[in-house]
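User: Hi! I have a protein structure encoded as tokens and I'd like to know what sequence might fold into it. I'm fairly new to this, so please keep things simple.
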């Protein structure tokens, strides 16, 4: 998605669109790597307005995706939604130093070249940041039994799990004498 900067006047530009995930390379890579499966197109709501020497863009991107729970391996679907604000400024050449201290403004700003701003990278980043590293079907997911592999969400399997699965189980009987 792109907007022309010259087209921005005193009034903000408000855009709403649906775009296929296939137009976003980084999202396709995440899908091919098995991180998730996108089930719906991206819903984009963008508000862009010119402010002094920069363009403020406030946006919301959302879609629905299918994940595999990292504890019980069940598939589940959930909404992936992110809101963001980015300040775009004309790209300028900066002499690179060995070390540069970033300000808070630097963390929410991005350069643009030419007479248009392309939101593709920002949209990809926002969606990717909302994809969980360890997806959970629900917070209280009990996972799989380390002994027999049964889904503990369906009920107790009857295995004796008292001494298995804990990294520090060797310290169970450890006592400190004063």
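Assistant: Happy to help. Inverse folding works backwards from shape to sequence: for each of the 178 positions I chose a residue that suits the local structure. Here it is:
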């Amino acid at each position: 998605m792109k907007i022309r900067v010259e087209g921005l006047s005193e009034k903000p530009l408000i855009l709403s669109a649906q775009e296929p995930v296939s137009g976003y390379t980084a999202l396709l890579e995440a899908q091919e790597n098995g991180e998730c499966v996108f089930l719906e197109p991206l819903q984009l709501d963008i508000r862009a307005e010119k402010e002094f020497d920069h363009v403020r863009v406030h946006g919301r991107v959302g879609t629905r995706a299918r994940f595999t729970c990292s504890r019980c391996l069940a598939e589940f679907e959930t909404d992936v939604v992110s809101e963001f604000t980015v300040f775009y400024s004309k790209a300028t050449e900066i002499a690179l130093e060995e070390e540069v201290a970033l300000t808070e403004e630097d963390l929410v700003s991005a350069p643009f070249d030419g007479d248009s701003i392309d939101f593709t990278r920002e949209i990809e980043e926002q969606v990717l940041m909302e994809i969980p590293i360890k997806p959970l079907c629900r917070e209280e997911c009990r996972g799989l039994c380390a002994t027999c592999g049964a889904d503990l969400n369906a009920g107790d399997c009857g295995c004796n799990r008292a001494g298995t699965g804990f990294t520090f189980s060797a310290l169970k009987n450890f006592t400190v004498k004063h």
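A useful reference point when you look it over: Residues 144-178 form one domain. Feel free to ask if any position seems puzzling.
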